[in-house]
Design goal:
The protein is mainly alpha-helical and 86 residues long. The chain contains 2 helices and 2 strands; from the N terminus they run ββαα. The protein has one domain. It is 29% helix and 5% strand.
Length: 86
């Protein structure tokens, strides 16, 4: 994330297989679980993804298509109604 200019998004550990990142070993970060991010930087990450600046254009399209199929039953956008998220 830092290489993308996103200094406030940290992945602290892997899902399922365990293993902590360097930031995940910092005692103050343990309370965040898998990781943390600011809402501003999450929006910037999604913009970069949409422009194909994170991974290849085809992989970006697949990721966005996957997010669009999310049912939103438990997601942040669950109460946005008919608002298009991407």
């Amino acid at each position: 994330m830092e290489s993308l200019g996103l200094k406030n998004i940290k992945v602290l550990r892997r899902v399922g297989s365990g293993g902590e990142s360097v930031a995940g070993k910092v005692l103050d970060n343990k309370r965040f679980g898998l990781g943390f991010a600011t809402s501003r930087e999450m929006v910037l990450l999604l913009k970069k993804l949409e422009r194909g600046e994170v991974v290849s254009v085809s992989a970006s399209k697949e990721m966005i298509d996957l997010m669009k199929r999310e049912q939103e039953h438990y997601a942040i956008g669950r109460s946005l109604g008919d608002v298009s998220l991407l």
